[in-house]
Amino acid sequence: MSAGLGTLDLARIHEQALIALLASRSSVEPLDGKVTQAAVFFVEALVPIERTRRAAVESNDRLNRMNEVLSRRTVELATANRQLQQEILQRRVVEKALKKSEQQSDQLLQESFHLQEQLRGVSHQILSAHEQERKEISRELHDEIGQSLTGINITLATLSIEASANTRGLNRKIARTQRLVERSMESVHRFARQLRPPVLDDLGLIPALHSHLDEFAKRAGIRIRFSAIAAVERLDSEKRTVVYRVVQEALTNVAKHAQATLARVTITRQLDGVICLEVRDNGKSFRVQRAKFGKGKKRLGLLGMRERVEMVGGRFTVESGPGRGTTIRAQIPLKRDTKLLPPFPRGWNFR
After folding, report:
1. How far apart are CA 142 and CA 149, in angstroms?
2. Which domains occur in the chain, in start order?
3. Phi, psi (deg, nearest 5) at residue 296
4. What is the per-residue pLDDT across 174-190, written as a single tens digit (0 to 9) for each?
5. Would you give the distance in Å from CA 54 to the centre of its chain?
6. Which of 280, 265, 272, 267 minimizes the C-alpha distance to 231?
7. Which residues 6+ apart lie within 8 Å of 31 measured at CB?
8. Segment 88-140, tens digit of pLDDT
């Protein structure tokens, strides 16, 4: 074994020894003892080789079992590696989503800060507008109605003095006094219509709009084309009021800023059960983006219209461009509980 000989080598050596033994023996020497000794020797010589072979077989079996275990461990390790790679990819996706979410959160936070600033500015403008409206109403009442009533009072006092002494010109003074009373009544009625037109509650939205548009066309010198469907009267009282106020405010902006000669007021119904109001003029355009973030009564008017429309679940958009004038569009659902989602960013449309 130390010489590196195997079983076949040992068998050949043993065969050669037996041949040499047989060749050298005399014919009278017995053969059985020699053969027996040779067989014992051969068996004893094979024992270490057999033990080594068995040890090798056992080692090979153990190695095979170890290889099987190693193969299973390799498969398990590959599976674990794949799972780890998937987890790494998932974590990268999650990290990317978290970074994006953080960016969006930061953006939303900045937008919320900006909206808070806007709300503070709008609140200030609303308070200023309310105060300005109070001043204008007070001035109108003082200047027009107050002066008319003062004139009536003076005329009546004069009439009471002259009635018994001089009847000449009495009818003329009475007629002048009646005209003062009529003008005062017209002023009061005008203020009442501006605050809340009675025809809107008594006759409906379409007659109220006809009355307002006729008066606006005469006062502003702008031609008005008006068309409306009867289904608009199916809106509830709050929504009809919103439509009336949007038309009123939109035409006020046209008269103040657009320098237009024609305005179209159209009320139609869309297929999805939505009433669509459009106020379109042929005047000069403006930048809606600048009007949104700007200051002044024009922005306040747009903001007020948008808030009114969205308050009843509607959608408000503004379109303005060179050569196309300005279009105010309000879409209001007929059904009471239906709400339209406003387009981004919250009720404004930039075109």
Report:
1. 10
2. 198-351 (3.30.565.10)
3. 115, 175
4. 777 777 777 777 777 66
5. 79
6. 267
7. 22, 25
8. 999 999 999 999 988 888 888 888 888 877 777 666 666 566 667 666 766 66
